[in-house]
């Protein structure tokens, strides 16, 4: 079968059908099934942990590597590769054995983690984070598909809830664990911990899981399978996104916006993006994104909602620990405790939003509540000062968490509701990609503003001060750079600059209203949903 013709008939390319019917298939049970579920829980725990474990350790890392200018890269590099390769893995899981692709993704994640743990410099750590993100992109969807192959339909909802629930728990525990490692042992344990857990996961999946390839793809050659995945088109998209993030990191902070390097990266981004779009318009047989998604108003608006809400969350989680450590003098572990109001508020409201959607059948309600609560919370956070009392920073963070929690997961339900069943897997991958991409792009924007404003304002306040020494001194290493009198001047400036970063969070939260209003009202309780056209 020609992969191009197959792509036209099943444009999504991400659903991995079972080779046998539900009735004929023999699923693992007892010890085998328990071991598989535990392994998948470990897998998703690693995915969730890696998103937040580094947040409270970042100030200590910048102190060790003398790389204040790289704060944003530690998060952006991971999110960039995770988002860019969501589509690639969605394609790979269709013609190839799910287990093999999953194990390769896990191996890539482990290699990236080992590089991070052994990193002798900030640059190597960033490279390791990018490699780990490349692997993580395939772990979540691969784990879900393995569960589909391992449990009968009637048991999947409960088991899926258990497995995906560990992701939320890991996200919650990440700042605690990262802070504890950074204070008690070394920040490198944030990545070392991934190795033994990953080895256990790989061993269980390798020995106990069987994921047969659908008969339609068994006769395909490796060349046909690779052609089906559209890897060249995806690599063009990845290159475009890398150029965009580089330009956003460099422009105005490292180099002037008129500098040739910034202009070149922006130009390459524009050319590659134009080429990617042109392929989808003029060469439908080579489309990476299915036609139904391209024509869906709700998918595009919900993708915008996903990017802005996720971007707000990642910027907040990245820079709030810096506020507590640099301004409030908290340890890494204590800063993990201090950001709990945000994360707990997010998790609690995510559950409540799910209940509301189940009762009403409409995700739009939660999407409309999100910008109201989140914008108010983010706006209040942008008033933080050196002497802000705990009653305020706890309440303001909780309010932001409530708002983002109401909306962040709703775009996934949009994809499941407005798309035909065969397009849903790709639709979910597309939303996940936009969430991660929003984090990568806006963390880069935040880093640009933070670095540029901090250097400029401190240089103006303390004449003769060398800006380079500030960037090389680390995020909280003030004692070696300033006298006590100067620190009294620097701390309020540092706090004000962080507030400018939180203005980005406020703007993103307000921008979610565009996606919320633009998403069509569709009931999740309807059994049949026609394809939506713009």
Write a structural description:
It comes from Apiosordaria backusii. This is Efflux pump antibiotic resistance protein. Residues 1-21 are annotated as: Disordered. Keywords: Membrane, Transmembrane, Transmembrane helix, Transport. With 534 residues, the chain is an all-alpha fold. The protein folds into three domains: 10-224, Growth Hormone, Chain: A, CATH 1.20.1250; 231-287; 291-534, MFS general substrate transporter like domains (Growth Hormone, Chain: A, Up-down Bundle). It contains 24 helices and no strands. The chain has helices at residues 3-9, 30-52, 58-65, 71-84, 86-92, 98-118, 122-150, 156-184, 189-192, 194-208, 215-218, 222-229, 231-250, 260-282, 291-294, 297-327, 332-338, 340-360, 364-381, 390-407, 410-418, 424-461, 467-471, 484-518. α2 packs antiparallel against α10 and α19 packs antiparallel against α20 (390-407).
Specify the helix fraction band: over 70%
Topology-level CATH name of the largest domain? Growth Hormone, Chain: A
CATH superfamily of the largest domain: MFS general substrate transporter like domains
- Give the second-level CATH assignment, the architecture of the largest domain: Up-down Bundle
Number of strands: 0
Tally the helices: what do you get? 24
Q: Decide which structural class fits the backbone.
A: mainly alpha
Number of domains: 3
Taken from the alpha-carbon principal axes, the silhouette is: globular
- String of helices and strands: HHHHHHHHHHHHHHHHHHHHHHHH
The CATH class of the largest domain is: Mainly Alpha
Task: Characterize the main sheet.
Answer: none
* Cα radius of gyration in angstroms: 23 Å
The parts where pLDDT drops under 50 for at least 5 residues are: 5-23, 527-534
Mean pLDDT: 83
**Distance between the ends:** 32 Å
Strand content: under 5%
